[in-house]
């Protein structure tokens, strides 16, 4: 049963992400439409294949982790408001598109990588640390496909997505609340999307540094927290 959960969950992740990449690269569908279609597809696959084994809860909460996670919510939401307010040219059509894309990406990726992926690893008996590490590596590998160039960009993307995967995985493990990490993922992506569209280089540099430092600090905290939990479990 444990092997079955792992195989099904990995199959859902691989199948869904391959379809997303194929729809963008071969069918030339917009990213937002692809995310919408495969968010629904992923939910259907999870519902029929894994619902009994890996429930997606939004009720449970670890109050300590929730309070610490408010740091990410406050920083990313504040940066988004600041960047929009200080931008010389505010294109509201772009902002709406980025909002929709950030929501769809957050829902899709959290259900796939944390709800189905990490959830199945934890249900199969793998230690919390190994489960979070494995899901973070898978999360990073599937993002590499969106980088056109080979070299430093891939290394930086892998490191960034690995840290974010580990952070979100830790929050999900400690809270068992899929909605909380969807909100954090959405705010983080939205801040990054706006940052990429900023005409002001100075503001973009400052926000990038703030996001990077926040990621490092929270990654260090979450890594320590999950290690302690793994030692207690073992």
Automatic annotation (TrEMBL):
Gene Ontology biological process terms from the UniProt entry: CAAX-box protein maturation; proteolysis
Pfam families cross-referenced by the UniProt entry: Rce1-like
One Gene Ontology term of the molecular function aspect: metallopeptidase activity
Key word Transmembrane present: yes
Keywords per UniProt: Hydrolase, Membrane, Metalloprotease, Protease, Transmembrane, Transmembrane helix
Membrane spanning residue stretches: 5-25, 31-50, 70-86, 92-108, 129-148, 154-173, 178-195, 201-221
Keyword Coiled coil: no
Organism listed in the record: Candidatus Sulfurimonas marisnigri
Superkingdom of origin organism: Bacteria
InterPro entries referenced in this protein's UniProt entry, alphabetically: Rce1/LyrA-like_dom
Domain CAAX prenyl protease 2/Lysostaphin resistance protein A-like: 94-190
Protein name in the entry: CPBP family intramembrane metalloprotease
């Amino acid at each position: 049963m444990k092997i079955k959960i792992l195989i099904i969950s990995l199959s859902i992740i691989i199948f869904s992400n391959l379809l997303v990449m194929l729809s963008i690269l071969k069918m030339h569908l917009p990213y937002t439409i692809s995310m919408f279609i495969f968010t629904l597809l992923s939910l259907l696959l999870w519902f029929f294949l894994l619902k009994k084994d890996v429930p997606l809860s939004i009720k449970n909460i670890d109050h300590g982790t929730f309070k610490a996670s408010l740091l990410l919510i406050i920083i990313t939401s504040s940066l988004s408001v600041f960047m929009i307010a200080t931008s010389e040219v505010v294109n509201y059509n772009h902002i709406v598109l980025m909002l929709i894309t950030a929501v769809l990406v957050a829902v899709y990726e959290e259900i796939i990588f944390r709800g189905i992926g990490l959830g199945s690893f934890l249900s199969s008996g793998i230690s919390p640390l190994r489960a979070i590490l494995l899901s973070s590596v898978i999360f990073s590998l599937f993002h590499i496909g969106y980088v056109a160039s080979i070299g430093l960009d891939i290394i930086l993307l892998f490191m960034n997505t690995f840290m974010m995967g580990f952070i979100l995985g830790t929050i999900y493990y400690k809270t068992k609340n899929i909605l909380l990490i969807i909100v954090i993922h959405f705010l983080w992506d939205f801040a990054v999307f706006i940052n990429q569209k900023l005409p002001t280089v100075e503001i973009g540099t400052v926000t990038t540094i703030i996001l990077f430092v926040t990621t490092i600090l929270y990654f260090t905290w979450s890594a320590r927290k999950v290690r302690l939990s793994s030692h207690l479990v073992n």
